[in-house]
Each structure stands twice: as structure tokens, then as C-alpha cells.
Amino acid sequence: MKTIRNIKVIIYFLITILMVTGCQQGNNQNAEITKGDVKLITLDPSHFHAALVQKSMYPGIDSVVHVYAPKGLGLDEQLNYIKQYNSRAENPTHWVEKVYSGNDYLQKMLEDKSGNVVVLAGNNLLKSEYIKKSVDDGLNVLADKPMAINTKGFDSLKQAFADAKEKGVLLYDIMTERSVAASILQKKLAHMPSLFGELEKGTTDSPAVIMESVHRYFKQVSGKPLIRPDWFFDPLQQGDAIVDVGTHLVDLVQWICFPDVSLDYTKDIAIQSSKIWPTPINLSQFSTITNEDHFPGFLNKYLKDDSILLTHGNGSINYTIKGIHTRVTAEWTYDAPKGAGDTYYSMLAGTKAHLEIRQSEEESWQATLYIWPTKSVKDIKAFTNDLDNAINEINKDFPGVELEKYKNGWKVVIPEKYMEGHEAHFAEVMKRYLQYLKEGKLPEWEVPDMLTKYYTTTKALEMAQQ
């Protein structure tokens, strides 16, 4: 009898282990990804960033991509870009797009379960629903910025991250600006105390951190003029600049100044002021951008004299992050000066040096990093020695980076091989995301920092609108 009881105990123990293991595997949807291919689903692509995710091929990603979208410009442009990438002469891709274009595309996607990673880039108003339903269905999500364009969207995003954790899936946004060489080097130098010192606290009028970006409504993507959907100009669908491009700027502040730090938006962020203002676009310019010959009715409330669209194209935030005074500004113009594209400016004020990125005509429109010693530096020879040591350290990861004396400071000369364009950065984001999928988790700081980022932008917009 004792032997029988022991056998029963052993069987019960084994069954319990199997049940626990089964539950753990059921809650980790990424267990299968570590063993096989990532299978992409593209949902309602109506922004060209969805196509740029597929400008390259990746080991571990199935070449068959299932696309679910309504018929229209967004789907047509997506397929045209993929066709262009597949047929280019140099290093062509070989994606196979399986398209479903019924009006019930979202429900169909959830029913089919044809992949395990949903790529989102399009109408930002719809993203909250797309993210929620994808996560609820146990799908990983790689979403273009912004993932929230207002306070309601932020509240939905908070819940989505909680649900993603429970489901064992990864919700992540596409932050391409972290791959810009000048920003990477600025970050490295900012954490070399012998050269940079400490980050200043700054003031509201003279922030220690300043980041600015200017984007263009009319631009070229993959060698051809970009056609934007008309809803792109509706802040209720696209979002104001402060919550759109502003997302990149706030992300860079966090990523550069507080790397690997899990931020708490309830304690670390204090918004002092914010503002928004329009960029005027006439009908001719609107038509060039959208291929439409009139302003749609939903834009009427943004028209001046029935002929000028006052786009929600500019925004600025003054805030502190962990006590550091910061200003970010996002602006849009119709087009760029000859030879230019989108441009970026960044300044970090350290006690020993200021690190400044400029991208003006003087820099031939290339993001260029400068190092300026502060007035507190009395021994320039010692500073120069520290600077040489810093560049030697940089060269361990980035061979070929050099210094060039420039005015009262130095210019960081970055070899051409590191100067990839914006479109190439999407591949860098995808590679990072693939690694996270393989590991089955994001870095510990990513989710709290994404929440902090979207709190900052949406709270600032709420403030600017009051």
C-alpha cells in the first residue's frame, strides 16, 4: 500500500509540473519565435514607414508577409514600394505579399493568425485599437511612432503594456533616430566625465538640453515623391507635431541623457510650458503632396479664408526630466532648401564641454557633432589630452572617427561608412527588435521609458490646448 501511495504522489507531482510548464509556455507567446521564423503581418499600412521596415531582408524573418488593409492609397503605395525593393538591381529583396483587402480586414487578421508580429504604420487615431486587439490576441507589435496622440491614447497604451506583459508578447515602437551616428557619438561622449563633466541643470530660459527637428511635407522616399493621405493633415488622426515628431526628440533626451535608466513619469517629469502653432499650406501645395484637387470636408475647420490650411505642424515643450531643464521643438515646412531634407539640432550642456549637433547648409545638411570647451576649462592642453583619450575610446567601436580643430572647439569627423540615411535606420530597429524577440523580453528600462515618453508628449499637448 505504501508503494502504491508513493507512486500516486510521484504521478501527481509529474502532472503538476507539466501543468505549470504548460501554463508558462501558454503565457509566453514568444517561445515559438525563438525556435522558428518571425512571420510578419502588415496591418492597414498608410504611412511609408511600414514599407521601409521591409527595405531589407532579415535572417529569421519569413519572406511571406500577410497584409490586411482596406483598398486605397495606403495599400497601393505599400505594395508599390515592396515591388520596387524586390526589383531593384542592387541587393533586391524577395518579399511575397499576401493581401486581404476586405472592409473587415482587422477581424480577418485576428481570425487568420497568419503571423506572430504585427507591423503598424498609418493612421495614428486607429493605432490604439489595433495595438489593443493585436496584443489581446497574443500578437507581438512593432509600431511606428507615435503610439499615442492624446491623453486617452496614453491611457490605452498603459493598459496595452500591462496586457502585453500578461500575454508574454513584445510591444515596441520604431525609434530610428537612435541609429544616427552623430547622436550615438554624442551619447558616448556625454558619459565620459573627464571630457564632458556632468550634465548641467540649466534653467527654463537656458535649458541644459535642447533638441529641435524640422520635417518636410513634400519629400522624396526611396527615390520618388511621397504621396501623403489627406488625413495626415488632420491632428485628430495624425496628431499634432508635438506628439508626432516630438516623440523622437523626447526619446533621444531619455536615451542619451539617462541610458538604461527606468524612468518614472509620475516622479521624473515636470512640464513647465508647451505651445503649438500652425504651418500654412495652400491648395496648390496640398494637391502636390496628396494628389487631391480640394481640401476634404474634415479639414474645413483648419482653413483660413477657405484657401489656406493651417496645419498643426509645430510644437515645443519646456520640461524637466530628473531635474534637468529641457526643451524640445518639432516643426514642419512645406519643403526643404535645395540639397537638404529633414534637419536636426541638439545641444547638451556639460560642466566641461557642450556637445552640439548641427545640420545646416554649413554642414552640407549632414548631421555634424561639435565639441565646445566651457569657460570653466582653464587648461586647454589638459582638455585636449582628455579629448584625444575620448576619441581613442570611441575608435574601439567606431574605427576611423577623428577630430578637426574648428573655431573655438572641435568638429568630430565621422567616416562616410557610418553616415547611413534615415531609410537605412529601419533595418537597425528591426535587428534590435528581432534580438528582443529571440530573448523573449525587452530591456528592463524600455517599457517604463516608453510610458514616460508618451506621457511627456501627450501631457504637453493637453497643456498647450488649454
Question: Can you walk through the features of this model?
Answer:
By secondary structure, the protein is α/β, with parallel strands linked by helices. It has 3 domains: 1-31; 35-174, Rossmann fold (3-Layer(aba) Sandwich), CATH 3.40.50; 178-426, Dihydrodipicolinate Reductase, domain 2 (2-Layer Sandwich), CATH 3.30.360. Helix content is 38%, strand content 23%. It contains 14 helices and 18 strands. The strands form 3 sheets. Strands 7, 10, 11, 12, 13, 14, 15, 16, 17 and 18 form a 10-stranded mixed sheet that branches. β2, α3 (73-87) and β3 (96-100) form a beta-alpha-beta unit. α5 (124-136) packs parallel to α6 (151-167), α6 (151-167) packs antiparallel against α14 (446-465) and α7 (181-190) packs parallel to α9 (245-257). The N and C termini lie far apart (78 Å).
Summarize the structure.
This protein is α/β, with parallel strands linked by helices.
List keywords for this structure.
single chain; 466 residues; alpha/beta; Rossmann fold; Dihydrodipicolinate Reductase, domain 2; ten-stranded mixed sheet; 14 helices; 18 strands; disordered N terminus
| Tally of alpha and pi helices | 14
CATH fold group of the largest domain = Dihydrodipicolinate Reductase, domain 2
Q: How many domains?
A: 3
Superfamily (CATH H level) name of the largest domain: Dihydrodipicolinate Reductase, domain 2
